[in-house]
Amino acid sequence: MIVTLIIACEVGFWVLLAAGLALRYLARMPRASVAVLLCEPLLEVVLLVVTAVDLKHGAQPDWKHGLAAVYIGFSAGMGHYLVTRADAWVAYRFAGGPRPSRTPAGGVARMAYEWRTAGRFTVSALLAIALLQAAIWYVGGDGSTASLRMWQGRMLIVIGVNAVIALSYTLFPGKDGEPSLLDRFLKPPSDRPRKHTAEDRTLTRR
């Protein structure tokens, strides 16, 4: 049931987001749009309550309860950013708004972007860790909490990976407007600029 509810919450989030933006930019009903978008946090509240009730009724904590806590943490930490980005793109497409900024290619702008991204992931992971710890205290010594602690460890890995990525763009930012060292490394070989050979230079002169 918990997994089904998580899927329903995810589907509900995007349905409410689409409905809210459609009301704002297509139906020209901004107040109704705000009302619909404000319903999105209720999805996480419902999931939190159902998870707590399930544990209270004697269910053994397992990966599903941990996943619910992680989902709630990331929904709370990332939800506002996703709504803001979606709103900006819809405004650009349908209401003549300014084009949303894209991911900077390199330089200081890319470094700042990566640290902001790492910050959002860190906040989301910390919220998930806090919810998992609350579930551990809630269960107490009456049940196994190994699966919940496993999710906490995974959240620490998420924080570490994002910190390493942001740090790499700090140490090797590249020039403004040019891909950083990490971007060039991750780019598929087919997309990398090919070195000109002597034959290429001969053909060019011809």
Tell how many strands the DSSP assignment holds.
0
Strand content: under 5%
Largest sheet, strands/sense/barrel: none
Task: Name the poorly predicted regions.
Answer: none
Query: What's the end-to-end separation, in Å?
Result: 70 Å
- Give the overall average pLDDT: 86
H-E order:
HHHHHHHH
Number of helices: 8
Structural class: mainly alpha
How would the global form be characterised? flat
Please compute the radius of gyration using only Cα atoms: 23 Å
| Helix residue percentage | over 70%
Summary tags:
206 residues, mainly alpha, 8 helices, flat
Task: Give an overview of the whole structure.
This protein is mainly alpha-helical. 75% of the residues lie in helices and 0% in strands. It has eight helices and no strands. Helix 4 (63-94) runs antiparallel to helix 5 (107-139). It starts with a helix and ends with a helix. The mean pLDDT is 86.
Write the layout of secondary structure elements.
Elements: H1 2-25, H2 30-37, H3 40-56, H4 63-94, H5 107-139, H6 146-171, H7 181-186, H8 198-205
Helix pairs in contact: 1-2, 1-3, 1-4, 3-4, 4-5, 4-6, 5-6
Briefly characterize the structure.
The protein has 206 residues and is mainly α. The chain contains 8 helices and no strands.
